[in-house]
Amino acid sequence: MTHEQLHNFVTEKGEREFNPQETLQVLTHNRMTYWSWGVSKLLNMFNKGLCLKVSGHHHKGWVIITLGYTDTYSVYYLSNKGIVKSEQHLVYFDELTERIDDKIERIPQYQR
Length: 112
Prior knowledge:
The chain is an alpha+beta fold. It is built from 4 helices and 5 strands; from the N terminus they run αααβββββα.
C-alpha cells in the first residue's frame, strides 16, 4: 500500500483525532507481545489513524487503528494490497493489545 492509499483509508474510516503516541504506549506496554508482531513500519496519519505494517503468525500486512467518538477503537486488518481482511469495532483501550495479538500472532501454545 502506498502512503496515499493509507491516507485515503484513514480519512474515510477515522472519526476523530487522537494522540497516536498514547495508543502506542498501550500497545508497547508488553514489549514481548509488540515485538512478536514484527512491526516494520509505524505511521501516524495526521492524528486520525495509527498504521502498523506487521508480519505476524496469522496476519501479514497492515493494522490500522482509529478512535471513534465513543472513545473506543476500531482496528482494521488489511493485506499488503489494501484489501480489508477483518475489522474490530468498539475496542476499549485496555483490551486493544490483546485483541490485536489474537488476530495477528497468538497461537494456542502461547501462555498469557
